[in-house]
Amino acid sequence: MRYMKEIVEDKSLDFFTKWERRGKAAYTQEDIDVIRNEWAKFMVKTYI
């Protein structure tokens, strides 16, 4: 989900180049937790 969010939010449309330089870098657990919390808040706000 974090990967998709970064693609959508990339205003310069230069996402591929940025990730190409990153190589095989991975998201940290903290990165994953942040997007998980954002998604949960969005779902609660939207559907409750």
Summarize the structure in words.
- The structure is a single chain.
- The protein has 48 residues and is an all-alpha fold.
- It has one domain.
- The chain is built from three helices and no strands.
- The longest helix has 19 residues, at 29-47.
- 0% of the residues are buried.
Number of domains: 1
Q: Helix coverage percent of residues?
A: over 70%
Fraction of residues in β-strands = under 5%
Note the run of SSEs as H and E. Answer: HHH
- How many angstroms does the end-to-end distance come to? 22 Å
Number of helices: 3
Uncertain ranges: none
Shape: flat
Set out the fold topology.
Blueprint: H1 2-9, H2 15-22, H3 29-47
Short description:
It is built from three helices and no strands. With 48 residues, it is mainly alpha-helical.
What attributes does this structure have?
mainly alpha, flat, single chain
